[in-house]
Design a protein that fits this description.
- The structure is a single chain.
- It contains one helix and seven strands.
- The protein is mainly beta.
- It has one domain: Thrombin, subunit H (Beta Barrel), CATH 2.40.10.
- It has a seven-stranded antiparallel sheet, with no helix packed on it.
Length: 113
């Protein structure tokens, strides 16, 4: 099977806090616990017990392996049922070049293993 993604996905131990963004700019869902399964400069995959709707946006604070925090907006583009919850795919909207570079650097070091 060929890899269709533009950016290689990484499996990491990261921490994410999500806050739902509504049309009025109101955050309605605070600090949902998620288990990140993969991460790339273009998106994120994670498992979560809460049901999130596809096409919704979340402010996310992603604590990466260096313990730095990356602030991004995630759009939920995919949801699948799994035991005990759901698996989600999200794309990053509005990540800074500096934060994207941090993910690229980690990827380079992991490729050497």
């Amino acid at each position: 099977m060929t890899e269709k993604r533009k950016h290689k996905r990484l499996e990491l131990d990261v921490n994410v806090q999500l806050e739902r963004l509504d049309e009025d700019g109101i955050t309605t869902l605070k600090y949902v616990h998620v288990d990140v399964t993969d991460l790339s400069r273009s998106g994120i995959g994670f498992d979560c017990r809460k049901k999130l709707e596809t096409g919704t946006y979340y402010d996310a604070r992603v604590q990466i392996w260096t313990k730095e925090i990356i602030d991004v907006v995630i759009e939920i583009v995919r949801r699948a049922d799994i035991d005990g919850g759901y698996h989600y795919g999200g794309i990053f909207i509005g990540m800074t070049d500096v934060d994207a570079l941090k993910i690229d650097i980690y990827q380079i070091f992991n490729d050497e293993d």
